[in-house]
Specification:
The structure holds 2 protein chains of 2 kinds. Chain A has one domain. Chain A contains 20 helices and 2 strands. In chain A, helix 7 packs parallel to helix 20 and helix 11 packs antiparallel against helix 12. In chain A, 60% of the residues are buried. Chain B folds into 2 domains: 63 residues; 75 residues, no CATH class. Chain B is built from 5 helices and no strands. Chain B is flat and about 55 Å long. The chains are: A mainly alpha, B mainly alpha. At the A-B interface, helix 8, helix 9, helix 17, helix 18 and helix 19 of A face helix 2, helix 3, helix 4 and helix 5 of B.
């Protein structure tokens, strides 16, 4: 009952006209950036971070939530019509959705994606509503050593899960950790790694790193590998909306996708790639029409798209209850909380219930707004794709400059933007994941604080790090995450080698 | 990097690992110069820098080994993607870098206009005047809009004071 009361209080916040306005702005912006190539929710929120100076926190987070969900809705539109998935989460949607569009079933694909997103978004938000307070309650007993262990788990799982290889993931992570050490040490006031520059004393701003690695890196990459031929857009016209058969084939994948997406999204390694992939594989196995997969099976759109949205709700669980970001977008949201001097975690549920419950309530409202914005009005969003590529990327660079220069009109920030933009470009070319770097940058300093706090409490006794069952378990899991994948790869290689030698002998 | 003869060099990016390694050495060196306060229980301010430096050195070393063994081939490119174009890359880079030279004298709107135009040209646009105009429009609108939100983007045109 308590949860329902608080949720009602949240709706009272979210339904205020001003907050509804921000929800609309967020949903519209989110859909637009989801449709446009090259910009995602993380980047959009990062560019809007300066706005937090002027807008009250509840409104800002309601807008950010709209962007987060809106980008998912918009992303599916581009994947289906253009076959260019903007984010890793919509790769699977593109697979079947674009086939459907080519066969003149684009409208049905868009509809099942939008309704599936709505169903899964609502299911995921429901799960978040009832799960988050419970986890926050649990987290109240967390001491510094538990938080440290949790962050270690987050580091290892993010580095292992994202990207093509562990070495790449960890290289990105340590790059972020290294950037995080720059500036004044918060505990002793000593300067670290500032290279004699006064402007680096405050550390490197998260916004600068994110904007440079994503926006500038992506612009350089696309510019250097750009073909003049415009991409072909599959026409929306013609083709039918969802038929009765489409509905009966879609509703189960929607629900299954939701069930797969939410829990995986809520893990510290989170992300949307794995749940969408799993959902696709599952639908393919369960389908009565497996032969249609690869030719435009509607289940292959409905399931992954639902999983994608449910995972996005799941990502908010560790973020809001533990302050633990598991994707780039979550890391930006954490930075936004920090801009307001707020630290997500169990205490925030007690001290700022209006903000948190307003945010959660706005997720329900945002889903409704997005369904309205995307189902009848999808034709308008598609027009965005008619903007020539060079204007889109020119605009991205201008807004990246706004985001970086607007922080403190510092020349050093612009220079960093250039340098880190090149790093982002190299990372893009050589397939290094960017999210671990961002999570290392934002969680690294916190992990250090928790470690030093734990050691200060224990008078320098390192055994405190495994002193509580929670910390010991989390560190154990972190170690497993680190050890198991290479072990499996080694066993597979050995099995293959044995198979080959056996074949050679026989 | 993937233009004919350069492909072999691009296929073994040992310099990537070297860069990480050098970064690690920088951090290790930095850790040495941070005075460890002895009155502090547990780890001092240098420990984290030291740990990060060690990690970077190790990872840089691993990356070099992987690259030399040929395990670090560049990302498999989509067949739809055009080959690497050096002029376009340099033009886009110039667009990103030009504000460094101009922003103190010409201010945000003009610098952003130049950046916009250079980037559009990197993407193959050749209508310079139109691009300059659109760039000026977007940059001025951004300057005005964000100023109204209370975010300072510096003086409009510093040369005029």
């Amino acid at each position: 009952m308590d949860i329902l009361n608080q949720l009602l209080g949240g709706f009272a916040v979210a339904l205020q006209p001003m907050n509804l306005f921000w929800a609309f702005v967020g949903c519209g912006l989110g859909t637009a950036v989801g449709v446009l190539p090259g910009i995602g929710p993380a980047l959009t929120i990062a560019l809007l971070l300066p706005v937090t100076a002027q807008v009250n926190p509840a409104s800002a987070f309601i807008m950010f939530a709209g962007i987060l969900y809106g980008a998912l809705y918009g992303g599916s539109t581009t994947s289906i019509l253009l076959n260019t998935p903007g984010e890793s989460g919509s790769v699977m949607t593109a697979l079947e959705g674009n086939r459907m569009a080519r066969r003149g079933r684009g409208a049905a694909a868009l509809a099942t994606a939008a309704i599936g997103s709505f169903v899964a978004g609502t299911v995921g938000t429901l799960a978040l509503t009832f799960l988050a307070p419970a986890i926050a309650e649990l987290a109240f007993v967390f001491g510094p050593e538990d938080y440290f262990a949790l962050m270690m788990l987050s580091f290892t799982s993010v580095a292992v899960v994202m990207g093509r290889s562990m070495v790449r993931g960890f290289a990105a992570l340590f790059f972020g950790l290294a950037l995080g050490t720059i500036g004044i040490d918060t505990q002793t006031g000593q300067t670290r790694m500032v290279f004699g520059s006064l402007e680096l004393l405050d550390g490197i701003s998260f916004t600068v790193v994110l904007v440079s690695l994503f926006a500038i890196g992506e612009t350089l990459y696309v510019a250097s590998r750009h073909s003049a031929a415009p991409a072909a857009i599959n026409p929306l016209s013609g083709g039918s909306w969802m038929t009765r058969q489409d509905w009966t084939r879609s509703w189960k994948p929607w629900l299954r996708g939701s069930v797969i997406g939410f829990p995986i999204g809520a893990l510290p390694a989170g992300g949307t790639e794995i749940p969408t992939f799993l959902s696709y594989a599952l639908e393919r196995r369960l389908s009565k029409h497996p032969e249609e997969f690869g030719q435009g099976a509607i289940e292959g759109v409905a399931g992954p798209e639902a999983a994608n949205n449910a995972a996005a709700a799941g990502i908010l669980v560790p973020l809001l209850t533990l302050g633990l970001p598991s994707t780039a977008t979550a890391a930006v949201l954490l930075a936004a909380f920090q801009n307001y001097g707020l630290q997500p975690g169990p205490l925030l549920f007690a001290t700022n219930p209006d903000l948190l419950w307003g945010l959660i309530a706005s997720l329900y409202i945002g889903n409704v707004i997005l369904l309205i914005l995307n189902l009848p009005l999808v034709g308008i969003w598609v027009r965005l794709l008619l903007i020539p590529r060079h204007y889109i990327y020119g605009g991205i660079v201008v807004f990246a400059m706004v985001g970086v220069w607007g922080l403190s009109t510092s020349w050093m920030d612009l220079a960093l933007m250039c340098g880190l933009g090149l790093v982002g470009y190299v990372a893009r070319v050589h397939d290094f994941p960017i999210a671990p770097a961002l999570i290392g940058l934002i969680l690294g300093p916190q992990a250090e604080i928790q470690l030093r706090r734990a050691l200060a409490v224990s008078q320098g006794d390192w055994s405190v790090l495994v002193g509580t069952p929670i910390a010991a378990t989390l560190l154990g899991v972190a170690a497993l995450v680190l050890i198991v994948p290479p072990l499996l790869a080694y066993r597979r290689r050995r099995a293959e080698a044995e198979g080959q030698s056996a074949a050679a002998a026989g | 990097m993937k233009n004919g003869s350069a492909a072999a060099a691009g296929g073994r990016p040992w310099w990537l690992g070297l860069a990480i390694l050098i970064m690690g050495v920088l951090w290790l060196n930095g850790a040495r110069s941070i005075a460890s306060t002895t009155n502090y229980v547990g780890v001092g301010p240098a420990a984290m820098v030291l740990a990060v430096g060690l990690g970077l050195v190790l990872l840089g070393f691993l990356l070099i080994v992987q690259a030399l063994k040929g395990q670090l081939a560049p990302a498999s490119e989509d067949e739809e993607e055009a080959p690497f174009s050096r002029p376009a890359f340099l033009m886009a880079l110039a667009g990103v870098g030009v504000p460094l030279l101009t922003i103190r004298w010409l201010g945000f709107p003009f610098s952003a206009m130049l950046a916009f135009t250079l980037v559009t040209h990197a993407f193959g646009s050749r209508r310079t005047l139109l691009d300059l105009g659109i760039g000026a429009l977007i940059a001025s609108l951004a300057w005005l809009g964000f100023s109204r939100l209370g975010i300072s983007l510096g003086p409009f045109f510093p040369l005029l004071g």
